[in-house]
Amino acid sequence: MDIFEIDGPVRLSGSIDVAGSKNSALPILAAALLAPGASTVSNAPDLADIRSLETLLESLGAKVLRNETGLHVDASVIDNPVGDYEIVRKMRASICILGPLLARCGKVKVSMPGGCAIGDRPVDIHLRGVKALGAKIYLENGYIVAEAPAGGLVGTQIFLGGPFGSTVLGTDNVMMAATLAKGTTVIESAACEPEVADLANCLNAMGAKITGIGSPRLVIEGVKKLNPIKYSIIGDRIEAGTFMVAAAITKGRLKINNCDLDHMLAVTDRLRFIGAEVEKTKTGCEVALDGPIHPADITTQPYPGFPTDLQAQFMALLALGEGNSVITEKIYPDRFMHVAELNRMAANLRKEGPSVIVAGVEKLIAAPVMASDLRASAALVLAGMAAQGMTTVQRVYHIDRGYHKIEERLNTVGAKIRRKNI
Ligand code: EPU
Q1: Given the CA of residue 302, which atom of ligand 1 is nearest to it?
Q2: How many Cα atoms occupy the beta-carbon half-sphere of 280 within 13 Å?
Q3: Which domain holds residue 383?
Q4: pLDDT tens digit string along 256-291?
Q5: Residue of minimum CA distance from atom 44 in ligand 1
Q6: Is 91 in the pocket of ligand 1 (CB under 6 A)?
Q7: Does residue 230 belong to any structural domain of this protein?
Q8: Are residues 316 and 175 in the same domain?
């Protein structure tokens, strides 16, 4: 098992490239299932989660090849529309094959995703959505079975709001299923995340008719068939945000390329409030912090609000703030596994229901810590770069799920991180 040894404190400076978006690539690769033939997705990151999806697509009958031009998915033959438990249990996002397989094959079985370190993550809204299109849904031995009616799925008006707002992958699933349904589907309370818009743009390039992209009201006029395509996905705004915090927490300066600052308005707002300079550049942005870290309150919300996937990283930053901050989770009220680990590094964090009171400390002190999930582990790496001494992060396979060789890339801008296999 790999660990990171991180020497701190360091001051990062230089230029760093953001990889393609993991959360765009996953549903866009699944969308390739909608079109018999060979599609190519470029700018897809080389990550453990993407490899899990590649394995899943192959298990369905598709042929997948990765080379320097991108990921090639040949979905000419899909003869086993089953999302196997062994793959789904490793990656919940596997649920994104539900919509395309239902539309393409008329029947699909996907293992019901189980529990997750960041909290309960039900899929009831996904199921409500495809049911509204006419699918029959039942559970069989831990598998969700969805069956389209004999005449195929039929467009209708669907409301996808839930207790925590809309659902990203649920919107993706219903939108993908609706592309091939008869008539018009209107999704109300659709997720507006840039990754959903990226998928919708990809589907339109395949021949779908979707309007309202990026808004909470998506209108999808069903078409008879979709065509395979070549598509390049957007830069990963969460990785970009993680690098922005890396610049700030190390009191450094980073040019961050291959990202769109327009996707990060809430993040930029909070960083500037905290005291960082954030400038838009031709290829992305430049972030620097030279001075105190001002405390700031943060509430996570659906897009365009502050993303839950950057909550842990900002907590590491605000742990070094000159005063008290309050961070509130409105998407995953239990997504606070990093709190106890950051406290092991001398942070002063106190959980109060869905909020954490962050009492800023003068310095963080290195300690052995344990990664619990993807974004929590990113927060520990950030804290390690700012802390005094050598921090050891265990279970770095969590970080490898979402960041490609993060230690090598951060080391090129001044970090001192060693990967060791123990
Ligand atoms: N929810 C329901 N019922 C549903 C679906 C969701 O109650 O049927 C709830 C969830 O429990 C949560 C909220 O609605 O409280 C939002 O969940 P959503 O469905 O939007 O999450 P997701 O689509 O499963 C994606 C990202 C997550 C990211 C969330 C929120 C992918 C592959 N994953 O998950 O990314 O946190 O949206 O923005 O796109 C990550 O990259 O670290 C990550 C966890």
Answers
A1: 38
A2: 9
A3: 2-15+235-421
A4: 999 999 999 999 999 999 999 999 999 999 999 999
A5: 309
A6: no
A7: no
A8: no
